[in-house]
Write a structure and sequence with these properties.
With 225 residues, the protein is α+β, with helices and mostly antiparallel strands. The protein contains 5 helices and 7 strands; from the N terminus they run H-H-E-H-E-E-H-E-E-H-E-E. It binds adenosine-5'-diphosphate and magnesium ion. Magnesium ion is lined by residues 130, 133-134, 191.
Length: 225
């Protein structure tokens, strides 16, 4: 037991240090990106493309650091009485743009009488966008359908995203929520870990239903307050 506690202590310390480092990376990053933006505004011919690549890569680092920070379990987030359907509607144009670009048909079915829930709007948007991104990235075959649904029950609300994509290998099912687990060449493996941590902070749960070659559904359950 003492060994196990020592191990947990060490893990906690590592987690705290990692979060500290991630936090410290953000400030210099902001300065670098600001100057880069300024310089790229007056780039000579032929350099613009290179500035764009640098900016893209910096954005990627930023996204990873941001994701990493939102993994912190005890992260304090403020929740407000909000409407899940309205949050979905507010990012729908973003989702549609991404889907259209990838030749994907979107079906949106929102429940009537959505009750107000205690939500952190920014985190719920992040949750939905992460799930939608995975759905879009899973669809390479001809049939490309993305579904977003909400359902209202007596004690809970469900948010379901579904895709007609490649499905998830049963051997991977117990790993996909682990930070840094990815099957993609340029994946970070942080998307679902962030989703899990957001859902945890909302006292909800996540369930995956997937069939190889047919598609995947992610069911997020949020408690009614
Ligand atoms: P990343 O997208 O960077 O790989 P995620 O944490 O978002 O990281 O997802 C982890 C892994 O889970 C993915 O690499 C993929 O193998 C699997 N996965 C997640 N969502 C889906 C989906 N909708 N369809 C198929 N596989 C998925
Ligand atoms: Mg992802």
């Amino acid at each position: 037991l003492r060994k196990e506690l020592a191990r947990l202590d060490r893990l906690n310390l590592i987690g705290e240090m990692a979060a500290g480092v991630a936090h410290e990376i953000r400030n210099p990053m902001t300065v670098v990106m600001g100057y880069l933006q300024m310089l790229s505004g007056r780039a000579e011919d032929g350099l613009q493309e290179k500035y764009d690549i640098i900016m893209e890569e910096l954005n990627r680092i930023n996204a990873i650091v941001t994701d990493f920070l939102s993994l912190a379990k005890d992260k304090l987030v403020e929740k407000e009485s909000s409407n899940l359907n309205e949050i979905i509607n507010s990012i729908y144009p973003l989702i549609m743009a991404d889907a259209t670009k990838n030749d994907i048909e979107v079906k949106l079915v929102l429940a009537d009488d959505m009750p107000e829930l205690l939500l952190n709007e920014k985190e719920i948007k992040q949750l939905i966008l992460n799930l939608v991104r995975n759905a879009i990235e899973a669809m390479k075959a001809d049939c490309r359908r993305l579904g977003i649904e909400t359902h209202v029950h007596d004690d809970k609300v469900e948010l379901i995203t579904s895709d007609s994509g490649c499905g998830i290998d049963s051997q991977h099912l117990n790993k996909i929520f682990d930070p840094f687990f990815t099957t993609k060449d340029n994946g970070t493996g942080l998307g679902l870990a962030v989703c899990q941590s957001i859902v945890d902070r909302h006292k909800g749960s996540v369930e995956i239903r997937s069939e190889i070659g047919r598609g995947t559904a992610v069911i997020v359950t949020l408690p009614r307050s």
